[in-house]
Amino acid sequence: MQRINNEHFREFKLSDLFERAERGQSIRLQIVQEGDMPVIAASGTNQGIAGFYELKEMYRNRITISCNGAGCGSTFYHPYPFFISGDAIALIEKPELKKYFTEYVSLYITTTINAKFTKIYSYEDKCTGDKALNTSILLPSTADGSPDWFYMERYMREMIERATRKLAVLREREST
Question: In angstroms, rounded to a whole number, what is the distance separating the alpha carbons of residues 30 and 121?
Fold first, then answer.
């Protein structure tokens, strides 16, 4: 795919796409038994995962945003079950848009949010659910002004396929 042509892009508030931003549960991980459930917390690395603990699933197939710490504003997509601490928020799509949030579209939107949020939010100016929903991101749009879901799906799918092919070539070179 060619470089992104942003001629047909426009700004969308996150509240145009998401019904709400839910704060995680305050929890002291030091007293929770280690287990299999990834816990999303205040981190800009490792997909925001603070560790794996014996906790019940809260979400899956959601975008999260770190709201605290050095990684404030870091945004990740989690296609797997996870628990979220009080240091992060989960974005909940508007019901009428949920069908558009495929893995590829979610990854595209995650990348766009992360690029903006890691620049505007910090430990001193923390992200909150209300701030997140009132922040705009630039997305491709159709002639009627709606998000161009097809473009986002196709673009991200092609980027991942290209990266996968490059990694395969590199692995083959390393093995010879």
Answer: 27
